[in-house]
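Per reviewer request, we include the raw input and output of the structure prediction for the construct analysed in the revised manuscript.
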Amino acid sequence: MVNTTNIILCVSTIVALSAIIVLNITPYIFPAPLSTTLDHLSSATSITITGAFGPESLAFDPTGSGPYVGVADGRVLKWSSLSNSWVDFAFTSSHRDECTRPFAPELEHVCGRPLGLRFEKKSGNLYIADAYFGLHVVGPEGGLSTKVATEAEGQPFYFTNDMDIDEDEDVIYFTDSSSTFRRRHFMLSILTGDTTGRFMKYDKSTKNVTVLLRNLAFPNGVSLSADRSFVLVAETRPCRILRYWLTGPNSGKTDTFAELPGYPDNIRRNEKGEFWVGLHAKKTRLANWLLKNPWVGKSLLPKLPLSFRQLHVLFVGGHHGIAVKLSTDGRVVEILEDRRGEKVRYISEVEEKDEKLWIGSVLMPSIWVYDLH
């Protein structure tokens, strides 16, 4: 026998949702404009990465050469100014027979997925946070990287994301974004309210890994302060930057360094000690509602016939690029945008070098260079 009450409830819900969508979808789906921003990033110069995709992080070696970028097929590429092209530099997996497509998420666990990149200045070694293989390192000549660390407290890293290096203490600070979801399922990690992320440090002398913070909601970018008194950690889901104190009376304690108008990815410090944060997207009303109701991500969204691309666009509300500069004490100093995503989209990292911003994206086949003058 058909339950009439359930039918009425279902029909009423559909009608109500349809009315909301038809009458006033824009304020919910699309992000509101940010105040006091400069819509200048559309003037940035693109550098296409032919045959590759998703340069999430950028790094320059101790000689200033580069940038180097990690891409979705498991390689680290280097920009050659001599040939004006990208060349292979390193890779994190030796099993590369199937790693022939620019974008194949189903093979990331085989090919590797280099995310955060950092050079150690005194050695010239490149450290790589590979989402599937943990912390790796490769020498100045490149080639196959070697394993540095893959677990903490008996729990393997599941989504290694970003890092920074304290060369004075020989310590690497890094994030593992989730203990439940792999990188290719990062949208579900955010939408289901997953708080299994960890922030850790690796001591190069003892080879020990220590968990500093746990139960984090998608911990992401990492950056050490200029005076090495604290380290910043981007917590993507709640749109904030955490400050973990390393020295002083608050040593070992954590506070909120900055609240942001969108979802932070990597953090990079400039020569003045300020911090550039790449925002993957701005907040929307729909996204806020989804994040406050994780049951939707756990129960409903997995059952809907939505591709990753459709789910992503629904969550972020269109194409745009945002870079935020923070002062040494966490104040927002500047926000740069490409509001319509005419050129720059889904920023994952912003590196300031030689009066230019070098910009990466985990979802685009190019990087961008923005002249600060």
